[in-house]
Design brief:
It contains 16 helices and 18 strands. It has 545 residues and is α/β, with parallel strands linked by helices. It has four domains: 298 residues, NADH-ubiquinone oxidoreductase 51kDa subunit (Rossmann fold, 3-Layer(aba) Sandwich), CATH 3.40.50; 77 residues; 58 residues, no CATH class; 94 residues, no CATH class. The strands form four sheets. It has a six-stranded mixed beta sheet with strand order 2-15-14-18-16-17, sandwiched between helices. A five-stranded parallel beta sheet has the order 1-12-11-10-13, with helices on both faces. The protein has a four-stranded antiparallel beta sheet with strand order 3-9-8-5, with no helix packed on it. Strand 14 and strand 15 form a beta hairpin. The longest helix is centred in the last third of the chain and has 62 residues. The chain binds iron/sulfur cluster (2 copies). One iron/sulfur cluster binds next to helix 10 and helix 11. The site of one iron/sulfur cluster (SF4) has 16 residues, from helix 13 and helix 14.
């Protein structure tokens, strides 16, 4: 094990230095929330499709029992009952999402017993007795997703990478966004469990080296992880300089390796895989303890709560319960944000449940948000003065002011040409803009417009292809009818000829020619049909239905 020094690192373009405000939530150990009375569990808490329900209203469930799962081949993760109780309702409810739309949720009334169903821990020392396939099956069954915010199903990420192998495993423990400290506290308090989870990853992926990136404003965490990784020769703890957004996947890879993930690509394209440190901890729970992803550590912080702290809470717990645990609201509470002040989004109320991707709830006054130059402060917008500060700060080398002008003009072709899809919505441009232009909000609007345009285009393509197939089918039926008529005519002629006693040999040749002609027509029709079916087999099915 080696501790890389600051001089060993590279840097990315841009970035900013917001005040971190992390110390306010790291004064207490991680608290555990008492069992709530009710949990509201969304069936979509991951990238991909919503999970399909396995329960109905009135069912009793054990802790850890799957209540919704994915059809095979679909991207997603299983959802489990975080405690034992009765399914009270299955209904639409506000979920934590930037769209503020409702999502389907399972409402679970807890019985207070917290009874586990069937689960099978394994001894850490016996890890080598299990095949990769068995370990991956435990990860899939546990419904793990990336806990850094993206909520990408971990099983899918690991299955693909373990097949082909990777050169460098990156563990993202930078936690660069202000106020958030859940990963910091997890590393301080549960480093041994994290390293056991890391051992599972190393077993599955067999990387040449593993780099754990931690911002240097977390000295206790660095010491704890360094101590716990001492036995591993190919693992290096990297105390990287504090600079927002060093926790961005591509930015962290650049800092640690000086390599760049190609535009539109993923780390795997350059032989790397990135996992968040909290995900590594949940890997330990899933593989060694046999526990599905039922809870997570969440930061509840800001000048809007009396006792900012980190709380281990069940998925589905209403945010109001967390705020109660943190001493309740102060008179300064003006905004409720899920995530941090730079990348988080505002929640309309506190009855919204905790989901797998919830790392922080920030309850803050507008003045505190202004101090952090957060876009949530919603300061009066002024005209762009073309100062170019946003361009200097952008970690992806974009031209935010150009993107802003083209978005305002709804010129989405130019927005695409200026690589909007590469924008990671980090908020650095908002942070530096002297005109308080909510640039990220404009970019989110442009992205949603482009998505809906894409959907409209896809629907139009499907209709066009369906119409083309119907036309083809009409033509094929016409040709088949013509062929039948020809055959019928030939049969009639043969019948007439034999009745009149004409030359049977000449008639046989004529009849053979008619048959050959009919076959030729049939082959031509079949060849045409095959070419269309090969071109678009799915539409054939749609057309037939
Ligand atoms: S920082 Fe703001 S004012 Fe300056 S160029 Fe960018 S958008 Fe315009
Ligand atoms: S939000 Fe997008 S455009 Fe703005 S700095 Fe971040 S990556 Fe660049």
């Amino acid at each position: 094990m080696s501790l890389l020094t600051k001089s060993s690192f590279w840097t990315f373009h841009g970035g900013v230095h917001p005040e971190c405000h992390k110390a306010m939530s790291t004064q207490r150990a991680i608290q555990t929330l008492p069992l709530p009375k009710q949990l509201i569990i969304p069936v979509q808490q991951h990238i991909g499709s919503p999970a399909e329900l396995l329960v109905t209203v009135g069912d009793t469930v054990f802790k850890g029992q799957p209540i919704a799962t994915m059809a095979s081949q679909q991207l997603g993760a299983t959802i489990h009952a975080p405690s034992s109780g009765t399914i009270e309702a299955i209904k639409k409810h506000n979920i934590p999402h930037p769209s503020a739309l409702d999502g389907l949720c399972v409402v679970l009334r807890l019985d207070g017993d917290d009874d586990w169903g069937d689960y099978q821990p394994i001894a850490y020392a016996d890890l080598d007795q299990y095949t990769n396939k068995q370990l991956l099956a435990r990860i899939e069954t546990a419904g793990l997703v990336g806990l850094g915010g993206a909520a990408f199903p971990s099983f899918v990420k690991l299955k693909n990478s373990s097949k082909k192998g990777i050169e460098t495993l990156i563990i993202n423990a930078a936690e660069c966004e202000p106020y958030i400290s859940c990963d910091d506290m997890l590393m301080r308090e549960r480093a041994d469990e994290i390293v056991k989870g890391l051992q599972v990853l190393l077993r599955l992926l067999q990387p040449t080296r593993c780099l754990i990136g931690i911002e240097d404003n977390k000295p206790e965490a660095i010491v704890a992880i360094k101590k716990a990784t001492t036995p591993f020769d190919n693992v290096a703890v990297c105390a990287i300089p504090t600079l927002y957004p060093s926790g961005g996947e591509k930015q962290l890879i650049k800092i640690l390796t000086n390599k760049e993930v190609p535009d539109g690509g993923i780390p795997f394209d350059i032989g790397m895989l990135c996992h968040n440190i909290a995900t590594v901890y949940s890997l330990y729970n899933a593989v060694i303890k046999g526990e599905p992803l039922l809870s997570r550590v969440v930061t509840v912080t800001g000048d809007g709560v009396k006792q900012p702290q980190n709380i281990e809470t069940l998925i589905g717990t209403p945010v109001s319960d967390l705020i109660k645990q943190a001493g309740g609201y102060t008179e300064k509470a003006q905004r409720l944000i899920m995530g941090g002040p730079m990348m988080g989004f505002t929640l309309p109320h506190d009855a919204i449940p905790v989901v797998k991707a919830s790392n922080c709830f920030l309850i803050a006054s507008v003045s505190a948000l202004q101090q952090t130059k957060s876009p949530h402060a919603l300061q009066a917008q002024m005209p762009c003065i073309r100062c170019g500060k946003c361009m200097v700060a952008c970690p992806v080398n974009l031209l935010p002011q150009q993107l802003y002008w083209h978005t305002q003009a709804k010129d989405f072709e130019k927005v695409v040409a200026h690589h909007l899809s590469s924008c990671i919505e980090c908020g650095c441009c908002d942070f530096v803009c002297p005109s308080h232009i909510p640039l990220v909000s404009y970019f989110r609007f442009a992205k949603s417009e482009l998505r809906s345009q894409q959907l409209t285009l896809e629907k139009a393509n499907i209709s066009r292809e369906r119409h083309e197939f119907q036309e083809f089918r009409r033509q094929r039926e016409k040709e088949e009818r013509a062929e039948k008529r020809l055959k019928h005519k030939a049969a009639l002629q043969r019948k007439k000829a034999s009745a009149k006693g004409k030359n049977p040999k000449a008639d046989a040749i004529k009849a053979a020619m008619v048959r050959a002609n009919a076959k030729k027509v049939a082959r031509a029709a079949e060849a045409k049909a095959n070419s269309v079916i090969k071109k678009n087999p799915q539409d054939e099915a749609k057309g037939e239905s």
